[in-house]
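One such shown below:
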Amino acid sequence: MSLSIRSATRVDIGLIAELIRALADYEKLLDEVRFDEAVLGEKLFGARPYAEVVIGEIDGVAQGFALFFHNFSTFEGKPGIYLEDLFVRPEARGSGLGKALLAHLAALAVERDCARLEWSVLDWNEPSIGFYKALGARFMDEWTVMRVDGAALAQLGAGAAMSAEKV
């Protein structure tokens, strides 16, 4: 068995979309997938890429992916890598591909002089939590994820525009 990790290219957009949908199905969130493949391709591989993707292969067959982007630690004064999604197809789990994908990102973080590699995990996902802990990951219990999206995001953004007009 041969494991390999490669950077995704624009020709992989269909594969990336398929893997995102498979991840969403695993996480019981398939009804929340709304992307348009052409727009996703532009956001990943256009003039201003917002994220990077690596594809994990076993014997030349794509079996997983990781989608990540840079964040920044003001306290460290350095960038970090935020892993948005990591997925390995069920039939490939236990092969070492998940660990290889995370190790690849850790090596990128070191190479790019990043302060950290971090991600979120659903609290019910015990298999992944156990896997991450075994690799040395730790919970950030003192932090709670916050999000503004949809109508609330539009409303907040409109409020910022109105505030700017008053200045």
About this structure: The mean pLDDT is 94. The helical segments are 13-26, 37-45, 97-111, 126-134, 150-166. The two ends are 63 Å apart (CA to CA). Strands lie at 3-7, 52-58, 61-73, 78-88, 117-119.
